[in-house]
Design brief:
Largest sheet: 9 strands, mixed
Radius of gyration: 14 Å
Strand content: 35-45%
Distance between the termini: 41 Å
Structural class: mainly beta
Low-confidence stretches: 1-6, 106-117
Order of helices and strands: EEEEEEHEEHE
Number of strands: 9
Strand order of the largest sheet: 1-6-5-4-8-7-3-2-9
Helix content: 10-25%
Mean pLDDT: 79
Number of helices: 2
């Protein structure tokens, strides 16, 4: 197993966790440059997660909504939706790794990219969202 040290960790102040009628989860975050490589989402089962997007960049999600903790802890995979404003930049599936503590080293896994939608609303409709939990500090302004 290769150890990776992340040179940059970005805090995502505002994000949304969406659940559809099949219990599938999607996490909406700001788009980052470049395509993800072997991403994984580490979740501590409490209020923090770390999206290890590639060998260079990890995205920290703090203050996870209490109601979304159980569905996230039970998920094997989540969809990560990267947005530029209200436009979907990319969508990809990421395995969820439940950990006791989040550390800044990780293992490489493979995730498949999905077809991207044109807007967040179109993706929510096709995803069939039934719950939307907002986390982070405050609502992001467009």
């Amino acid at each position: 197993m290769e150890t990776q040290y992340y040179t940059l960790i970005e805090k995502q102040d505002f994000y949304e966790i969406i659940e559809n009628k099949y219990g599938e989860l999607a996490i909406f975050i700001d788009a980052r440059d470049g395509s993800p490589q072997n991403p994984v989402l580490e979740f501590d089962g409490k209020h923090s997660a770390l999206l290890k997007r590639d060998a260079r960049l990890a995205v920290k999600l703090d203050n996870i909504n209490e109601e979304s903790v159980e569905p996230l802890a039970e998920a094997e995979f989540v969809m990560i939706v990267e947005l530029k404003g209200k436009t979907v930049e990319r969508v990809y599936a990421v395995p969820v790794d439940n950990v006791e503590d989040i550390v800044f080293e990780g293992r490489q896994t493979r995730a498949d990219e999905l077809v991207k939608a044109k807007t967040k609303e179109e993706l929510l409709e096709s995803f069939g969202a039934i719950h939307c939990w907002v986390g982070g500090m405050s609502e992001k302004e467009d």
